[in-house]
Amino acid sequence: MAISEAVPGNQRLHVPIVGWLGGNNLVLLYRQQRADGAFSAVRRILAPDNCEAQLLPCKALGTSYTISLTKLQKLRSQADSLYFFGTDPKTDIFAFCIQLYYSWIPKDGDAELEGMSPRDVFLLKGSTMFPALRSVMDEMPQDTVVSWVNLVEWPAVSWDNWDGVATLTGDSAHCMSIYRGEGVNHGIIDGCVLAGALKRAADSLATPKQAVQDYEAEMRLRRKEAVDVSH
User: Per the UniProt record, which residue ranges are transmembrane (predicted)?
Assistant: First the structure.
């Protein structure tokens, strides 16, 4: 179920109605939270004057491809566990996908890269990596696609939540670079804090508007530090 709510600029926002069982009463809350990424379309509506993510002054290449369990085990035996994330299956029926990124600050010497394919640039730049990781790059399948990556961030600014009707979470609220690996963590925290705030509203301990404001106040303090130290 959803309602269509008028928003500034003669636009309309289709907002899902969320049912929450508070005590013995079913409370219907119609709040819109969006986590639609670094280039959030909803952010363009809520913060039209400062919605653009800012491109960081660096070059970056990225790729991903499937590797065998044997190669994964070899890499894990040679590299720090902080290089790995996700689950740790006990069987060999899973396909393991490795993601590799390489970034650098452009310099005058980068002129030699002109005309080279992204794959060739990636292998050239990666030749200085430590042996365990470089061996994985050297074994990259010939048909692997390497792409240029735009690293962006969105500085800590405010947006109009239309009196608590709409808000942002995840990368749409605090887009940061990948170097510290904290973007997903903060997205999860956003969800937990917002859920707790809406639960208080469902229990009549706060209005829905105050619940959204409380979430945003906590998140803005947390995200400012996270964005500032992420690169």
Answer: none
Instruction: Choose one of 89, 118, 148: the last residue of a domain.
Output: 148
> Which stretch of DSSP H or E encloses residue 71?
helix 69-78
User: Partners of 2 in the beta sheet?
Assistant: 16
DSSP-assigned letter for residue 92:
S
Same domain, 47 and 97: no
pLDDT at 33: 54
Helices and strands: H and E segment counts in the chain: 7, 11
Residue 76, token pair as written in the block: 């894990």
Single residue among 148, 171, 203 that ends a domain in this structure: 148
Q: What digits encode the pLDDT tens for the residues 5-60? A: 444 444 444 444 333 333 433 333 444 555 667 788 888 888 889 888 888 888 89
**Same domain for 43 and 65:** no
Q: Over the stretch 152-170, which tens digit does the pLDDT of each residue have?
A: 888 767 888 888 888 888 8
The reply to whether 11 and 47 lie within a common domain is yes
Tokens in use for 214? 């409380």
Farthest CA pair distance, the chain:
70
Mean pLDDT for all residues in the chain: 76
Q: Which range of residues forms the domain containing residue 139?
A: 57-148
CA 214 – CA 182 distance, rounded (Å): 22
Distance of alpha carbon 214 from alpha carbon 211, whole angstroms: 5
